[in-house]
Design brief:
The chain is an alpha+beta fold and 259 residues long. Helices cover 16% and strands 36% of the residues. It has five helices and 13 strands. The protein has a seven-stranded antiparallel beta sheet with strand order 3-4-5-6-7-8-9, with helices on one face. Helix 3 packs antiparallel against helix 4. It is globular and about 45 Å long. It starts with a strand and ends in a 5-residue tail after the last strand.
């Protein structure tokens, strides 16, 4: 994932609402949202190159994990070959009923943010490769992209504001607002862009909520709702046709009998 916003309300019946975009190299193969064939308790897309996931739900434990990479100045396509895939962290976070991950065990991975929500236990944690930045997630609205934990990049602010504006919408209107916000391709003002060492042109390309270039871009958009009793609804749009005619296919998964 490259931008995620959420509303975490553990004292309410609907404990988690989330909008997220996954940005990735277009050449990297993946599977769309579905229960995993080799572990049906896990539901999400899957990276076919390394076997991990960017957003994953454990329907047995009612836990969710989502991941973003921390952007580094060296192009990711060339720099991470000798390190384990960070997508494996979501799988690790949801296995064995583990409630607490140990940041020290992640030292082999390049920079990342891993957020984990446990609906029935009403706990949420934020784990990074930097133990000093790891800790609980506060109640209310939150966001993460590819910078430090406390960073507020333009794409985060735009998406977060849209979610805040939609807080009291009906479920249908809330989902529609999410799709509109997640497909926002407007470039931010140059003065608001982060400087991660990639150069102004590349920072601009990557600065919008929805990234659309010929080789790299937003591959999946996800809308999710999770209830205290463990029911979940997950919508996913898979995008193709970057830098040409964008189209998407849509999938929906739920274990909810009624909401």
């Amino acid at each position: 994932m490259c931008v995620i916003v959420w509303r975490w309300t553990p004292d309410e019946e609907l404990v988690l609402s989330m909008w997220a975009n996954r940005d990735e190299w277009l050449s990297r193969p993946s599977l769309p949202l579905a229960p995993w064939l080799d572990n049906p308790a896990l539901v999400g897309g899957r990276d076919l190159q390394a076997g991990g996931a960017w957003l994953l739900f454990n329907q047995t434990e009612a836990t969710l994990a989502a991941l973003t990479n921390i952007r580094e100045s060296k192009p990711e396509g060339d720099s991470q070959a000798i390190r384990p895939s960070r997508g494996l962290l979501t799988v690790q976070a949801l296995q064995d009923g583990s409630q607490n991950a140990n940041p020290a065990s992640f030292s082999d991975f390049a920079g990342f943010h891993l957020i984990r929500f446990a609906a029935r236990l009403k706990t949420a944690s934020w784990i990074t490769h930097d133990e000093a930045q790891s800790g609980p997630i506060s109640t209310g609205f939150g966001s993460v992209s590819n910078g430090p934990r406390k960073a507020q990049w333009p794409k985060q602010l735009v998406l977060l504001q849209a979610m805040q504006n939609a807080k009291d919408f009906s479920a249908k209107a809330w989902c529609q607002a999410g799709w509109e916000a997640l497909s926002d391709r407007r470039a931010p003002n140059i003065q608001d862009l982060p400087d991660t060492g990639l150069g102004l042109a590349r920072e601009t390309e990557l600065g919008s909520v929805f990234v659309n270039t010929a080789t790299y871009g937003t591959r999946q958009s996800t809308i999710l709702r999770l209830w205290a009793h463990g029911a979940a609804q997950i919508w996913e749009r898979t995008w193709v046709g970057h830098a040409a005619t964008l189209t998407y296919s849509e999938r929906f998964w739920s274990n909810a009998q009624s909401t």
